[in-house]
Amino acid sequence: MSAAASPVRDPSPAAPPAPSLGVLSRLLRDPEGVAADCRDAADLGPLAATALAAIALGAAVFGGVLGSFRGGAQIGYAAIKVPLALLATLALCAPGFHALAATLGRPWPLRTVVALSLSAAARAALVLLACAPVLWLLFDLGLGYHRAALAAALAYALAGLAALSVLLRGLGPGAGRALTAVGFVALFFAVGGQTSWILRPYLVRPRTEAPPFLRAREGGFADALLTSGRSSMEIYDEDLQERDSEIGGSGTRAKGEGDERPPAPARPRRDGTRAEDDL
Amino acid sequence: MSLLDLALLYALAGLACAVAIYRAELAAGAPHRLRALGAAALAIPLWPLWAPVALGRRPTAPRPSAGAYGHARGHGHSHGHGNGHGNGHGHGHGHGHAPHAAAPAAAPSPVAATAARIEAALAECADACAGTPVEALLPADAAARIAAEVARAATRHAELSALLGRDGFDLGEAERRLRGLEGDGASARAVATARLHLDNVRRLAALRDRDARALDELADLVQALRAQLHLARYAGASVAGLQGATSGGALEGTSGIVSEVWARVEGLSAVLDPQDALEAEPLAAAAPAR
Which of A108, A125, A232, B190 could staple A112 via S-S, CB 3.0–4.6 A? Predict the structure, then answer.
């Protein structure tokens, strides 16, 4: 008799890491199952590959629709930049997600956290894909610039909720679930905001003659948020600088002072665009 | 450091991950080089997302092909080719390829099904342990070693079953032969030869049955281990500090079951050395004194 035969490799190796329509369908219909797979499945290759494909496709189509507000080259620019912003954000956030999850009671392998993040983002991208025709119709019906921005923001909010559903299911029951989810969202928002800021513009006014692929960097997302917040309280940076030079110190103008002076008009930039065109 | 420097570092890290993924895909038996190249290429721009998934794929324990233990029984692959040579043909070429079974695929034997159950449960145990504090109790490579021993035992069981199905190795026939010789008053030498043959066949059958029993018991134990690991995992067991009696009990129970599994595997390995069990007595020693 031969010696005990050495075992051979499994003749049916793991499924190839290629996108799969079945996984895509499950992303939409069975977020619970997908979330469970992220935790339990041995081979996350097909899930990750499908998620990446969904992100690329969904975000590209949505970006293309955003760019269609201006048309021309901006369609292609935005179709490239929207998925790029999303993928770059995920890439930057993945280690942070892993650390947050481990700290808050879910010491999962990095691949599990990455798969969960990709699945959530893929679901969001599919929602954006679904919203794209609606947005396109609204643009075609003559929606104004600011309302177009609000409509796009609403689509992003819906997509975010869809992603959150996968995330919460993936985090599972147990202590620290809500805090972990808040941490994930906060990190994603911060990193995603800055990444998107760097890659802007996406929604460009039709009258812009030659939209650039990337706007010249001026400030950051946090600065823009702060400036917008201060502007909403009628605190304008130009007035602040003038007051500083007058009184020789820093100080925030109190509400009500100098209301009679209108805000300074937006200064044109070297590339010919204006601040109000930024989005 | 400028953005360009960062981009260059990012690309270098991506390239390193791509090489690692390419080698891992080939080692895992990717059917086409192109597929491995595709997986590697995806790592260059997306390595923070793709590398943990591609490189973190859980190792699948080596599994014998269906031909190794499902087909060997009674198919006579060994006729005229020596012991196990037919079986070697069935699974000796199994480097990621399907076995070239001469006969249509038959239903797997019960032992093959048990071995498959054990391997699936072990894989699930390793998955449940991975990345948790209990991983030290059953790391992936340990699970793979156990699965390999199970596969060896199942293969040996199949070989023994095939052997005992061949002409001249049937237990009932050997018993009838001995009874016939004794009843007919055959020579002592002939009776001794028949008795020796019967003893050897009985030993082979005992080895085969012992393998089957050991695998059955191991299957039950691994199933229990799987449940215990899930309990330990969801009870939030922590090596650093156990929260409450439930999780502490789960961890201790897990450790105990893992020890028992290793003990059974060692016992299985002991059975895998057939030389002691099959030690044949010389005819001269067996023959009665004249």
Answer: A108
Size of interface A-B (CB pairs under 8 A): 143
CA dist., res. B219 & res. B92, Å (int): 26
- Find which of A92-96, B166-170, B178-182 is predicted with most confidence, using mean pLDDT: A92-96
CB atoms within 10 A of CB B202: 13
B241 touches chain A (CB under 8 A): no
Q: Which of A16, A105, A114 sits opposite B49 (nearest CB)?
A: A114
B26 sits in which H/E element: helix B3-27
Neighbours of A156 (CB within 10 A): 17
* Residue A225: φ, ψ to 5°: -65, -45
Is pLDDT above 60 for B71? Answer: no
pLDDT in tens, B128-160: 777 777 777 777 777 877 887 888 888 888 888
In sequence order, what are the residues at sequence separation of 6 or more whose Cβ sits closer than 8 angstroms to the Cβ of residue A159? A124, A125, A127, A128, A131
Tally Cβ neighbours within 10 Å of residue B211: 23
The answer, yes or no, to whether residue A103 has pLDDT greater than 70, is yes
Q: Is B29 on the interface with A (CB under 8 A)?
A: yes
Q: What is the pLDDT of residues B81-98, one digit of tens each?
A: 444 444 434 343 434 444
